[in-house]
C-alpha cells in the first residue's frame, strides 16, 4: 500500500464511500446509489479541489475518525459537526490540512444526519460499474467502513479550490417536500390523497439510505388488487401495506410492486437526507412542470 | 397505451400485456439507439416501461401517443442454459400446487423456454416468464430470512434465480452453480431483459 491512503480509527455508526452513483443500470436491477446529500458532497469536493465525481465519505449521525498516511487537504460539510485534528478544533465547511499520521476526527452531527468528508485526490477504491459508491440495498461497491480498514486515496489534481468557505443550508426543522401526484394516486381513495398532502407526517427512525420512512396517517387504498411490478424513480413515494408513505432515496430498489402515490422534486431530496427522526414532514402537491 | 407522468423527468408507459411491454421495450431501445430518444434509463417491467431522465416528458408522451409500436421482433439471441438440480425445499409444495409429482415439476419446468421479462429485486435477478398460467404459485406465507445464491425459485407467473444470498419469499425448486452476477465480468449480468433461458436438469448429488 502506498502512502496515499488513510486508516479508519473510528468507523462510526454507518460510514460509507459515496460519489455520484451508478445511474444507467436500473434495467439490470442495479440501484443508482450515490451521496444522499449531493450538494454537500459536491461542495466538500470543490473545497479540496476535487472534480465533482470524486468519492467522499458519508457519515451517519455519529461521525468517524481517520488517520491519513500522507498529508492531505480535507473538508467536512453536510451535517454540521465538531471537527478536530489531533484533538485541536479546526474549521467545518472549509479546507483543512491534515498532516501525515494525524488523527482527523469528525464529530457527531450537531444537527442533521449525514456529514461528508472529502480528501484531496478522492477516495480511490475500485469502482464497480463506474462508481465507487457503497450500495446498501444490493451490496455493490466497498463495504461500510470498519475500524482498522485502510482506504486508498487518489492523486490530487492541480485544480485549486475556488472557494475557502461556503454557505450550506441548515438541516431542516420542518421538512417540506414538494410532490407531483402520480403515477398511481388513483390507487388511493380521494380522502387518502387529501390526507397525504394536508396532514402532518414525521420522519421515522427506521429511515435509511434506501428510503425515508414516515409516521403519520395511513393512506387507504381504493384499489386493493396487486400492482404488477413496475419501474420506480428516485424520490418516488411508495405506499406499502401499512399505509405509511416511504420516500425512495439513492439505494432504492429499481422496481416495486406497491403503488407510488407521488414523486418528490429532486431539489428537495438533499434536505430529506438531513432530516433527523421526528422531524415534521409536509408533502405539498405541485403541478408537473 | 397510457403514458403516466412520474415526477418532472420520467414517464411510466403502461400497456395491456407482457407481450406488449416486450414490443414497447424493443421499440424504445431501437429509438434510443438511432438517436431519436434521449433518456437515462429504460426499465421494462410486467406491464410497463419506465423512461427515466427525459428532458421533455410531455413531448415524448405525445410522440408515443401518435406513433405505432411494431410487434416485438423475434427473439434472436442465443439461449442461456442454466444447469439445475431440482432439489429445492419447496419442490413438494409446488408439486402439490400443480397437482403433479415432484419429478414432473422438474420435467415440466425443464421443458419450457423462458425469457427474461424484466430485472429487479437485486442486480442480475431476472423475472423469467414462459410457464403457462396454470402453473402460477403463491409466494411462501413466511419469507425465508436467507435464500442461498443460485436458488431457482417460483412466484406468481415468474421463475427467478437468486444471484446472491438474500431474504426471499419465493418457492425454491432447485439450485444452479452458474454465476448470475459478477461485477468484474462484462456483462456483469448473465440475464438481462429479453434473454432466453433454459434450465437443464443435472443429477443431484
Automatic annotation (TrEMBL), chain A:
Residue ranges of every copy of the Carboxyltransferase domain listed in the record: 27-289
Keyword flag Transferase: yes
InterPro entries hit by this protein: CT_A_B, Cyclophilin-like_dom_sf, PxpC
Alphabetized UniProt keyword annotations: ATP-binding, Hydrolase, Nucleotide-binding, Transferase
One annotated GO molecular function: transferase activity
Keyword Coiled coil part of the UniProt annotation: no
Protein name: Biotin-dependent carboxyltransferase
Species this protein is from: Streptomyces cyaneochromogenes
Classification of source organism: Bacteria, Bacillati, Actinomycetota, Actinomycetes, Kitasatosporales
UniProtKB/TrEMBL annotation, chain B:
Annotated GO MF terms: ATP binding; hydrolase activity
Keyword terms, alphabetized: ATP-binding, Hydrolase, Nucleotide-binding
Domain of life: Bacteria
InterPro entries xrefs: CT_C_D, Cyclophilin-like_dom_sf, PxpB
Gene3D superfamilies noted in UniProt: 3.30.1360.40, Cyclophilin-like
Domain Carboxyltransferase: 1-191
SMART domains: AHS1
Protein name, entry field: Allophanate hydrolase subunit 1
Amino acid at each position: 500500500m502506498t502512502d496515499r491512503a488513510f486508516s479508519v480509527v473510528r468507523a462510526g455508526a454507518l460510514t460509507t464511500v459515496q460519489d455520484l452513483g451508478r445511474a444507467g443500470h436500473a434495467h439490470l436491477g442495479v440501484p443508482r446509489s450515490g451521496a444522499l446529500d449531493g450538494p454537500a458532497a459536491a461542495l466538500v469536493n470543490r473545497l479540496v479541489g476535487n472534480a465533482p465525481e470524486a468519492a467522499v465519505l458519508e457519515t451517519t449521525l455519529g461521525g468517524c475518525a481517520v488517520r491519513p498516511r500522507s498529508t492531505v487537504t480535507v473538508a467536512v460539510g453536510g451535517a454540521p459537526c465538531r471537527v478536530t485534528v489531533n484533538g485541536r478544533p479546526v474549521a467545518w465547511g472549509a479546507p483543512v490540512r491534515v498532516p501525515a499520521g494525524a488523527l482527523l476526527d469528525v464529530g457527531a452531527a450537531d444537527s442533521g444526519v449525514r456529514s461528508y468528508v472529502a480528501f484531496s485526490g478522492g477516495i480511490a477504491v475500485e469502482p464497480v460499474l463506474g462508481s465507487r459508491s457503497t450500495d446498501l440495498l444490493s451490496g455493490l461497491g466497498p463495504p461500510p467502513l470498519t475500524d482498522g480498514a485502510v482506504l486508498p486515496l487518489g492523486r490530487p489534481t492541480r485544480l485549486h479550490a475556488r472557494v475557502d468557505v461556503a454557505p450550506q443550508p441548515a438541516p431542516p426543522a420542518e421538512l417540506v417536500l414538494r410532490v407531483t401526484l402520480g403515477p398511481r394516486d388513483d390507487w388511493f381513495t380521494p380522502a387518502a390523497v387529501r390526507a397525504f398532502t394536508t396532514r402532518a407526517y414525521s420522519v421515522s427512525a427506521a429511515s435509511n439510505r434506501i428510503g425515508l420512512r414516515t409516521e403519520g396517517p395511513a393512506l387507504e387504498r381504493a384499489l386493493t388488487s396487486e400492482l404488477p411490478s413496475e419501474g420506480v424513480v428516485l424520490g418516488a413515494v411508495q405506499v406499502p401495506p401499512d399505509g405509511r408513505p416511504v420516500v425512495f432515496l439513492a439505494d432504492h430498489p429499481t422496481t416495486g410492486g406497491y403503488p407510488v402515490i407521488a414523486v418528490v422534486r429532486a431539489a428537495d431530496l438533499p434536505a430529506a437526507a438531513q432530516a433527523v427522526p421526528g422531524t415534521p414532514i409536509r408533502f405539498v402537491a405541485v403541478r408537473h412542470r | 397505451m397510457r403514458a403516466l407522468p412520474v415526477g418532472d423527468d420520467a414517464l411510466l408507459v403502461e400497456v395491456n400485456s407482457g407481450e406488449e411491454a416486450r414490443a414497447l421495450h424493443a421499440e424504445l431501445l431501437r429509438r434510443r439507439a438511432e438517436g431519436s430518444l434521449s433518456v437515462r434509463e429504460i426499465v421494462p417491467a410486467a406491464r410497463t416501461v419506465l423512461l427515466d431522465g427525459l428532458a421533455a416528458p410531455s413531448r415524448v408522451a405525445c410522440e408515443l401517443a401518435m406513433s405505432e409500436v411494431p410487434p416485438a421482433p423475434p427473439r434472436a439471441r442465443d439461449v442461456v442454459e442454466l444447469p439445475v438440480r431440482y432439489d429445492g425445499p419447496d419442490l413438494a409444495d409446488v408439486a402439490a400446487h400443480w397437482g403433479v409429482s415432484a419429478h414432473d415439476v422438474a420435467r415440466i419446468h425443464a421443458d419450457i423456454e423462458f425469457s427474461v421479462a424484466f430485472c429487479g429485486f437485486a442486480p442480475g435477478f431476472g423475472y423469467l416468464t414462459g410457464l403457462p398460467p396454470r402453473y402460477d404459485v403463491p409466494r411462501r406465507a413466511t419469507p425465508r430470512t436467507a435464500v442461498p445464491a443460485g436458488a431457482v425459485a417460483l412466484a406468481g407467473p415468474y421463475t427467478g434465480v437468486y444471484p446472491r444470498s438474500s431474504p426471499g419469499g419465493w418457492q425454491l425448486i432447485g439450485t444452479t452453480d452458474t454465476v448470475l452476477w459478477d461485477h468484474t465480468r462484462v456483462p456483469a449480468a448473465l440475464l438481462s431483459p429479453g434473454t432466453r433461458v433454459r434450465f437443464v436438469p443435472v443429477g443431484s448429488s
